[in-house]
Amino acid sequence: MPFDNSKNQARARNIAELLGHVEKSANANQADPAEIAATLEPALAALGRLGLHLSVQEDSAAPTETLAATPMPVDPMKSLKPGQRAAIILADQASTRELIASLIARLDHQADQLKGWTDGNHSDLRPQ
Q: Nearest CA to 53 among 44, 65, 43, 41?
């Protein structure tokens, strides 16, 4: 089930509605940013666990405070195995010609393995 679905969209609308009530209360009570941040600390911590880091930004021209969401930088390389990371690094540094030659060599190797399989020789079909 994808994350962007009707249930999560409804939940996000509820969160926005609740924050609207908090904003109205903060404006009516002339709350300062520290009070708002302290009140919203549990919600801000929950957003932090989702990878969103929120900070209170003071703007001298505007009396109200804004919360700016900055997504946490995600390193896609961390989810890869060391050999996969090395392959990507080498591929980034290789020329197109080298990449094509490597791909052809790999396809030839796979074709040789499949030929061995159809000939009844299964000893060359070990996982790599």
A: 44
